[in-house]
Design a protein that fits this description.
The structure holds two protein chains of two kinds.
Chain A (H helix, E strand, L loop, with lengths): L1 H5 L2 H14 L1 H21 L2 E3 L4 E3 L3 H8 L1 H34 L4 H9 L6 H11 L5 H7 L15 H11 L2 H13 L2 H9 L4 H29 L3 H11 L21 H10 L4 H26 L9
Antiparallel strand pairs in A: 1-2
Helix pairs in contact in A: 4-15, 5-9, 5-10, 5-12, 5-14, 7-13, 10-12, 12-15, 14-15
Chain B lengths: L1 H17 L2 H41 L3 H4 L12 H9 L2 H32 L5 H13 L6 H10 L7 H4 L7 H12 L3 H9 L4 H12 L1 H17 L2 H7 L8 H11 L4 H21 L1 H13 L2
Helix pairs in contact in B: 2-15, 4-15, 5-9, 5-12, 5-14, 6-9, 9-12, 10-11, 12-16, 14-15
Classes of the chains: A mainly alpha, B mainly alpha.
Chain lengths: 313, 302
Amino acid sequence: MSTVHAAPPRWRRGEGLKALLWMSPWLVGFAVFFAYPLAATVYFSFYRYDLFTLEFIGLDNYRYFLVDDRAWASIKNTLWLVVLMVPAQVLFGLGVAWLLTRLKSGVGFFRTVFYLPSLIPVVAGTVSFVFLLNPSGPLNQFIELFGIAAPDWFGDKDWSKPSLTMLAMWGIGNTMMIFLAALLDVPKHLYEAAAIDGAGAWRQFRSITLPTISPVLMFSTVTGVIYALQYFTQAMIASRVAAGVTDSPGSSFVPGYPELSTLTLAQWLFHVGFRDFSMGYACVLALLLFAFSTVFTLILLRRFRAFDEGGDR
Amino acid sequence: MTTLTTSAAAAQPAGVASRGPRPAARVPRGRAILYWIATHALAVALSLMFVGPLVFVALTAVMSNDQALTGDLWPRTWNWSNFADVFARSQLLSWLGNTFLYAGLGTAFMLLSSIPVAYAMARFRFRGRKLAFLAVITMMMLPPQVVAVPVYLIWARLDLTGTLWPLILPMLFGDAFSIFLLRQFLVSIPREYTEAAKVDGCSDFRTLVRVILPMARPAIAAVGLFQFFYCWNDYYGPLLYAHTNEANWTLSLGLASFRALHSVQWNLTMAATLLVMAPVIIVFFFAQKVFIEGVTLTGVKG
């Protein structure tokens, strides 16, 4: 440490210049694909722009947002995903990982099987689920064996989001692996000590497991929320395949089938900006998405404080 | 902790007094067997849930079109020609080629640009390195849709919309998620290695190539695989830039429109779905270790 302090400032400046050189590709990328577009998004939000004419309209885009029913429907759906789908995913991932730590044999096999669906290309997985859950599909045939009326999953506005949640829980692999690693990291002697002290399974989980894995819990929740805010592909594909509509050039399909129940904020932004070419208004929605993701990230980061930089070494 | 110890102390003598050594040994064993059965039964049930959908897809893929609409589980006739039909009726090979181009070039460019950046962030001492790292995290967290409009306009001005280049070229400027993961791994390599190389007269570049890269191989493999799979599965990007030009469609774009383009033929749709899934599943079985190590890397240091 002392040698570092003794080094003259010139040495430091030398490394700074070198670092600048090594990081230059990324610095260019940061400026061109992040800093500039973010500023430009704010700028365009005060304009009407359709790729051809640019016209200053002040706060009109923001005023329009307040009365845009579909924007509000998309926000409600997105919040539904954040509040219900993310916890379902995180808890299920934790539960499956916990089960793996309890198995005495076949752990490798089960781990592979549980992980596999998360690798399936999203579009392929979603198309498969729409088929499996179609009104005369295998799942409904099975449910009707018990004399229960089965729902029309992706075709019913009350069931479409739960169906998407089932799809999300199917692809739990990454969350599960992260939890599994965290659970195996908990020192065994702590459990032994607690067992000697007479702590039951629940008490052990609350007093030992939970505190140890909380940074990982934070990581999964933050990434889950960020991911839910930009939820796009599954909802888009599910509504499109269930409605039997393509996205061929020229087709005008309003996403969200059935009855806007699967319309997310990211989808509405995409539709407004790149199908209707109301780019100025799309920027208002983009800023809203930016605000949401910033707020959620900050709340969660402050709560768990695990993103403290690990320093070097 | 104190309440735990006192209650345990109270409970212990009672347990010792009431049970002899033999039953005490037998009860846990019986319970252990029940426990084994319960946990494994649960694991098998979950396995069926996870693999079931894939099995149904595979079985439907070889059914006749009439049977695919019935919800039957087992094919009455095995129509292997469905797969040939998929190739004949769609541009599957062209989609596959485009997907390879996007995923292959995207991954190569990302590694080329991100490794030096991650190395600089992990090793060089300079003012603002914390700020730079914070910028990487911010970029990683930001939904891509937030900056979509201005970025689209850049590519429109360069006349590259309608192609996959707007997705490939940015990879030359580093990818935040990959930089983050690589940096986290490189920081964990003891400084002694780089310092020893420097004493031996290695330049920074030589140190990176000769000393760091071989040690970071698992992290690089994981980051590369993640990037490849991300591009392979990506739907949003190709939909944004390439959907107007069918010649540049990827597998994701093609599959998304497959059912509507082919008038609701579930059996062919499932055959196409299976063909899209198959390479991924095969790669996974060969590179399973890399994946599992890589995923763990993302979480542990988070």
